[in-house]
Amino acid sequence: MTEKVGVLGKKPQRRTGVERVVNAPLPTVYGKFQAVGYMDHDRGDEQVALVYGDIGTDGVLTRLHSECLTGDAFGSQHCECGDQLASALRAVAAEGAGVVVYLRGHEGRGIGLLGKLRAMALQAEGLDTVEANVALGFPVDARDYGAAAGILQDLGVRSVRLMSNNPRKREALIRHGIQVAEQVPLLIPPCENNITYLRTKRERLDHHLPHLDAVAHLS
C-alpha cells in the first residue's frame, strides 16, 4: 500500500509527546475527580491523569502510579500497588487538590503483564523480583517517565510534592523539567505475602521503606 503524502510530496509529520484528548468528570468513592485523557504519541499508550480541585502550579501533591492490573484491580498481596493507589487518591482528596497520573505501559516495571506473571512464577520458585527479570532477559526497570512529565506540564504543574518511596521517580521528573519540592512517603503496612518483595525493593532498588524494620517477624 502506498503511503499518503502531503500536497508538496512530503510524508505527514509524525506527532510526538503527549496530547490532551478529553476531560471528563469522574465521581469516585474517594471524591469527585476530573479524568484528563491523553495520547502518548511516542509509545502509543493511552494515559489518564485524575485531577482533584484547583491544583495550581507549585508544590502540587502528586502520585505517578505505574499500572498494575494484579494489584490495582485484583487486590494482589504480592505487591502494595493497589493500596498505594487508594492511599494516593485519598490523600489528594483530603488535601483538597492534587493529581494522580496513572501510567499505562508500566505493568511489571515496564515488562508487560505476561512478562510480570512469568517473573512472579520465578519468584514463587525462590528468585527475587530483580533476579526474575534478569533471568527472563528483561531490564530490572524499563519504565520511562517522559509522558508523566509531559502530562504535568500540560496541566500547568511546575513543581510537585511527590508521593513515592522510589528516588528514581524523583530523578526522572527532574530530568524532564519538573521540580520535586518534597518526596512524600507512601508506606503501606507489609504482609506475609509481600514482605520479601518489599525488602528486595529496599535493598536492591533503593526504595525508602523504613517501616520494614518494625516487621522483622514476617518471613
Give a summary of the structure in a few sentences.
This is GTP cyclohydrolase-2. The chain has helices at 69-73, 81-95, 107-110, 113-124, 129-135, 146-154, 167-175, 195-205, and strands spanning 18-28, 31-40, 45-52, 60-66, 98-103, 159-163, 179-184. By secondary structure, the chain is an alpha/beta fold.
Strand content: 15-25%
Q: Give the N-to-C terminal Cα separation.
A: 59 Å
Kindly report the spatial arrangement of strands forming the biggest sheet. Answer: 1-2-3-5-4-6-7
Gyration radius over CA: 19 Å
Series of secondary-structure elements, N-terminal to C-terminal: EEEEHHEHHHHEHEH
Low-confidence stretches: 1-7
Strand pairing plus helix content: what structural class? Answer: alpha/beta
Largest sheet: 7 strands, mixed
Main features:
single chain; 219 residues; alpha/beta; seven-stranded mixed sheet; globular; disordered N terminus
Layout of helices and strands:
Layout: E1 18-28, E2 31-40, E3 45-52, E4 60-66, H1 69-73, H2 81-95, E5 98-103, H3 107-110, H4 113-124, H5 129-135, H6 146-154, E6 159-163, H7 167-175, E7 179-184, H8 195-205
Parallel strand pairs: 4-5, 4-6, 6-7
Antiparallel strand pairs: 1-2, 2-3, 3-5
EC number: 3.5.4.25
Pathway: Cofactor biosynthesis; riboflavin biosynthesis; 5-amino-6-(D-ribitylamino)uracil from GTP: step 1/4
Keywords: GTP-binding, Hydrolase, Metal-binding, Nucleotide-binding, Riboflavin biosynthesis, Zinc
